[in-house]
Design a protein that fits this description.
The structure holds 2 protein chains of 2 kinds. Chain A is α+β, with helices and mostly antiparallel strands. Chain A is built from 4 helices and 12 strands, in the order H-H-H-E-E-E-E-E-E-E-E-E-E-E-E-H. Chain A is globular. Chain B is globular, with a radius of gyration of 17 Å. The relative contact order of chain B is 0.19. The N terminus of chain B is likely disordered. The chains are: A alpha+beta, B mainly alpha.
């Protein structure tokens, strides 16, 4: 390929200046990039308005895509299942055993819970979801793991609200536009979730590894008691995530924790639920109790 | 519309005396296609790992190699800005890296005057690898938790897919120069 004609403008002053101005603008681009990058590293929310308006523009496209996702993934899933049927069979058998054991402990826990609640006279306040939404986009080519949902400020979504699917935690809302919101997925390394082992309450936290797996790290170091197949649920500490949402299943224990896979893969869930942040829920619950308590106190004498 | 502004593409279409490519299509399609590539993250795939190759960036390289001089040297500034809106990277990384890439392509053009597709592929592979590594480094700055090995499958896949992208750019170039305007 020969050098292009435009690079050799000859004696035309105008063309020479044109090329020169192009280089000046290109260098300005580099400088602008450095400045903007520095600003956004210092204050990650600085350009949230631009991102959310861009997401609004792409919203119809994402919604159309979300409709097609269930079908396309069914096809890929079927092909994939064919190739690792044997392995999957063994894995499923193991999982059924584990699930059976879990079901028994779950039953006893539920019984205990019911008895304790009856004892205390607490009415479980219905945890009403803020919105039921589609995941309409994700940052599929970046190391950061964000997703976009098709509900925003107009639907009552606020930053900090947890997002979950039926089978587990998806992430939390970090930026809100009028009709879209950006979700920090559990697999992002910035997202640290306090968890406990479902069986016995062993405290740990999980951090995303950006590769679809997450890292489970124990808070108390020492002998690592985590076994393959242990389920970790949110502990509710920190006040962001409500307690009891499944987050991860340990698959590969190592010295001070385990590598786990997600309880709810965002790719498999067509609909996800945005809930109120746990702190807000807890505050509302406390207010309710205070009101009830005042009423009860007024009645008793 | 003179020849120099729309590139020297008359060889690919049938010559007819009273026909000419639409100026809007001929000049706008590269920009629009790269922006669509940036918006590809709104695809039906919700990924929990970086698996999609950087389509928009590869299309930028593809257009730049297909028709040198058609995209101006400063094209990295606006196109990188649009990519930042959708990529999820810390804002500004696209503006910076895309501008640098356009300048790097100028240097490559100066150094290697005569080259074929294999050389273009090598140059593209080097640029894509550097781009993905730097993106991961910048994202690592943002999270404070660098993960250098996550991008390896993505790099390999992007390099393998480069000829496919280059082929689709060639196809788009034919569409760009369809003689739709009657003189």
């Amino acid at each position: 390929m020969a050098r292009s004609q435009d690079r050799r403008p000859g004696n035309s002053r105008r063309a020479q200046y044109g090329i020169f101005t192009g280089y000046v603008f290109a260098l300005l681009g580099v400088v602008a990039g450095v400045v903007v990058l520095a600003v956004s590293l210092i204050d990650p929310d600085a350009f949230a308005f631009a991102r959310s308006s861009a997401a609004e523009v792409a919203r119809p496209m994402g919604q159309a895509g979300a409709k097609g996702r269930a079908t396309s993934q069914g096809v890929f899933g079927a092909i994939g299942a064919y190739f690792n049927a044997g392995q999957q069979n063994a894995a499923l058998r193991q999982e059924v055993d584990a699930a059976r054991a879990n079901a028994v402990s779950m039953q006893s826990l539920q019984d205990e819970n019911r008895r304790l609640k009856a004892l205390l006279g607490i009415v479980d306040p219905a945890r009403k979801p803020v919105a039921t939404v589609h995941l309409i986009g994700s940052t599929a080519s970046s190391t950061r793991r964000f997703a976009v949902i098709d509900a925003g400020g107009n639907q009552g979504v606020r930053p900090g609200f947890p997002v979950r699917a039926a089978s587990g935690l998806i992430g939390r809302v970090i930026e809100v536009g009028p009709d879209t919101a950006r979700v920090l997925l559990v697999t992002d390394p910035e997202n640290v979730v306090p968890v406990r082992r479902a069986r016995d309450g062993l405290a740990a936290f999980v951090q995303g590894a950006s590769n679809g797996r997450i890292d489970i790290r124990l808070i108390n170091m020492g002998v690592n008691p985590v076994k393959k197949g242990d389920v970790f649920v949110t502990s509710g500490s920190g006040g962001l995530y409500p307690p009891g949402i499944p987050v991860a299943v340990a698959t590969d224990p190592h010295r001070d924790g385990a590598i786990g896979h997600l309880a709810a893969d965002p790719a498999n869930n067509e609909f996800v639920i945005v809930e109120q942040s746990y702190q807000a829920q807890a505050a509302a619950q406390l207010q309710q109790i205070a009101k009830d308590g005042a009423g009860a106190a007024a009645e008793t004498p | 519309m003179n020849r120099s502004r729309i590139g020297s593409g008359e060889d690919v279409v049938r010559k007819r005396i009273n026909r000419e490519p639409l100026p809007l299509l001929a000049l706008g399609l590269p920009w629009v296609s790269i922006i669509m590539g940036s918006m590809a993250s709104f695809s039906p795939l919700i990924a929990s790992a970086p698996i999609l190759p950087p389509i928009a960036y590869m299309m930028l390289l593809g257009w730049r190699m297909m028709r040198p001089g058609m995209l101006p040297v400063w094209a990295g500034l606006p196109l990188g800005f649009v990519d930042d809106l959708y990529s999820g990277q810390p804002f500004g990384s696209g503006i910076l890296l895309w501008s640098i890439s356009m300048l790097a392509m100028e240097v490559i053009d100066e150094r290697y005057l005569w080259r074929g597709f294999a050389q273009d592929w090598i140059a593209g592979s080097v640029l894509i690898t550097a781009y993905l590594v730097l993106c991961a480094v910048l994202a690592g700055f943002a999270t404070g938790f660098p993960l250098p090995f996550v991008i390896v499958p993505q790099v390999v896949m992007s390099i393998m897919l480069f000829p496919v992208i280059a082929g689709s750019i060639a196809l788009l170039d034919r569409v760009r120069l369809l003689p739709l305007k009657r003189l």
